[in-house]
TrEMBL record:
Protein name, per record: Long-chain fatty acid--CoA ligase
Signal peptide limits: none
Stretches assigned to the AMP-dependent synthetase/ligase domain: 33-426
InterPro entries: AMP-bd_C, AMP-bd_C_sf, AMP-binding_CS, AMP-dep_synth/lig_dom, ANL_N_sf, ATP-dep_AMP-bd_enzyme
Gene3D superfamilies in the record: 3.30.300.30, N-terminal domain of ligase-like (3.40.50.12780)
Length: 576
């Protein structure tokens, strides 16, 4: 144990290794090991329908063979546009088994947001929720995708639930319409039903396998500049981070844990803690296509969760829902919160309801994503994001001169070095060079302070990204949408903290002469171009905006002015 180089090791919980070696192999090797060790154990559960590890391994081998028949080869990008469902897990590992690259997408993105990503990565095949397939079919001819594999979520549900959705009742019809569609699936691109992939014989064992250094995933992020781009994550990056997560929780019982996937797996946080970490420990992964308190509490009756990664609002809502219904959450021993600050009140309420630990972690897409966490034990420190994970080095530096370290206790930009650090941004060498420094250090764009015991506190973000509901929102993207409205001549977008954690997206606009502020009209305009969570919660009118000498909007001054003046009630929209 090198306390001189990594003094935070002294704060680790008992049982957490102070020396960390990245496991050998790839993500597909890890899944194969779990299939071999836990063959008869339930791997996936979806609305009560279960899939064993043996069945999962067989489905992955068949889907990989089906993708190979469709022309997928080593190094190809394959787009996944899926909510949490068994097909998502199978598709993810099937793509990787061929040495191809998974590109994750949010199925709730607008057409424009999806199109930007497809233009950037150039995938020729997409595996998509059938409700999204018509939107891919409508892409113009210059988008590279030629084949769309359409996934019907209902087919993964138990027979009783599928039958209930066919009843001639309005509620059943509405529920079915929200889950699947047959309208608009035809178009210029080849359409293949998901079930057709699974009709192939298993992929032969002699099929070449990927290498640990091969790219496994392109995970889109706004990064440090606000422009969405694909972070290149290798098998080794993701395997290392899953192993770091496993090492951080020494009380885990491999083959016996039940992990709830309430986080979307197209998000870096959900991808690592559900798609890779849970599968690596032979856990039962209970899948939810969206978070719903009732669905989670109902599922807990059959399969009590033991490990719950989530964000603070989910913990608050589950604790309140359990108290209202008299439901028991005491099976949950471990809960790890991320993506936004964790209020101490949430910790107190959750731990009173469960008797287990709720700790806060920190990460970013560029680090696969987890960098640090509070120890699971008495040395944890609420209000901080904890200490660096095993095998991770950190520095606190001058943001304007990242080769200059700050003195202990001073604030500065956090730099990260470790096996989880990404390889750069897809086809963006200049932006990669700005973030990845010499000797493997990665700039986070986050201003932090490290106390005497080396616990990290997030102070501010250089990159000015807004974190709402656990998702990153780039202010520049929202500003562009507002500026496309005829009434808006200037706009600045910032994040303002909510009392319950996270931030609201707040816009300040300058209107054209003679125009009147119509908050709902502007929000409606934004909804046509942005995902719902990016639409401003509040829109305020101003006569002008503060700018630097070179004309750049000074968002920090905008934010400070809003905090000083308060928000007018008439400028607030709803939370949809």
């Amino acid at each position: 144990m090198d306390l001189a180089a990594r003094p935070w090791l002294a704060s680790y919980a008992p049982g957490v290794p102070t020396i960390f070696d990245v496991p050998e192999g790839t993500l597909t090797d890890v899944l194969d090991a779990s299939v071999g060790t836990y063959a008869a154990t339930t791997a996936l559960e979806f609305f009560g329908a279960s899939t064993s590890y043996r069945e999962l391994g067989d489905a992955v081998a068949r889907a990989a063979a089906g993708l190979k028949a469709l022309g997928v080869t080593h190094g190809d990008r394959v787009a996944l546009v899926l909510p949490n469902c068994p097909q998502h897990i199978i598709a993810f590992y099937a793509v990787l088994r061929l040495g191809a690259i998974v590109v994750e997408h949010n199925p709730l993105y607008t057409d424009r947001e999806l199109r930007h990503q497809f233009e950037d990565h150039g995938a020729k095949l997409a595996i998509v929720w059938d409700r999204v397939a018509p939107r891919i079919q409508r892409f113009p001819a210059d988008i590279a995708v030629t084949t769309v594999v359409s996934v019907d979520l209902i087919s993964a549900m138990p027979v009783s639930r599928r039958l209930a959705l066919t009843l001639p009742l309005r509620r059943a019809r509405e529920a079915r319409a929200a889950l699947t569609t047959t309208d608009g699936l035809t178009g210029p691109r080849t359409l293949v039903a998901w079930k057709e992939l699974l009709r192939h014989r298993r992929l032969p064992q002699q099929q070449p396998r990927p290498a640990a250094t091969d790219t496994a995933v392109l995970q889109y992020t706004s990064g440090t500049t606000g422009v969405p781009k694909g972070a290149i994550l290798t098998h080794r990056n993701l395997l290392a981070n899953a192993a770091q997560g496993r090492a951080w929780v020494p009380g885990l019982d491999a083959g016996r844990e039940t992990v709830y996937a309430v986080l979307p797996m197209f998000h870096a946080y959900g991808l690592t803690l559900c798609l890779t970490f849970a599968m690596s420990i032979g856990a039962k992964l209970v899948l939810f296509p969206r978070f719903d308190v009732g669905l989670v509490l109902d599922a807990a009756k059959k399969s009590p969760p033991t490990f719950l990664p989530a964000v603070p609002p989910i913990y608050d809502r589950l604790a309140a829902g359990a108290a209202e219904r008299g439901a028991d959450l005491r099976s949950i021993r471990f809960a790890i919160s991320g993506a936004m600050n964790l209020p101490e009140s949430t910790v107190e309420t959750w731990e009173a309801a469960t008797g287990g630990y709720l700790i806060e972690g920190y990460g970013l897409t560029e680090t696969s994503p987890i960098v640090a966490g509070n120890p699971i034990g008495p040395t944890r420190r609420p209000g901080t994001v904890g200490v660096p994970f095993p095998g991770t080095d950190v520095r606190i530096v001058d943001p304007d001169a990242p080769d200059v370290d700050r003195a202990p206790g001073e604030t500065g930009e956090l730099l990260i070095r470790g096996p989880q650090v990404f390889q750069g941004y897809w086809r963006r060498p200049d932006e990669t060079q700005a973030v990845l420094l010499d000797d493997g250090w990665c700039r986070t764009g986050d201003i932090v302070r490290m106390d005497g015991d080396h616990f990290i506190t997030i102070v501010d973000r250089i990159k000015e990204l807004i974190i709402t509901g656990g998702f990153n929102v780039a202010p520049s993207e929202v500003e562009r949408a507002l500026l496309n409205h005829a009434d808006v001549t200037d706009a600045a977008v910032v994040g303002l903290a909510r009392a319950e954690g996270g931030e609201d997206v707040v816009a300040v606009v300058v209107l054209a002469p003679g125009a009147a502020l119509d908050v709902e009209a502007l929000r409606s305009h934004c909804r046509s171009a942005l995902a719902a969570y990016k639409v401003p919660r509040t829109i305020v009118q101003a006569q002008d905006l503060p700018r630097s000498q070179i004309g750049k909007i000074l968002r920090r001054e905008v934010r400070a002015q809003l905090l000083n003046d308060g928000l007018p009630a008439e400028g607030k929209g709803d939370r949809r």
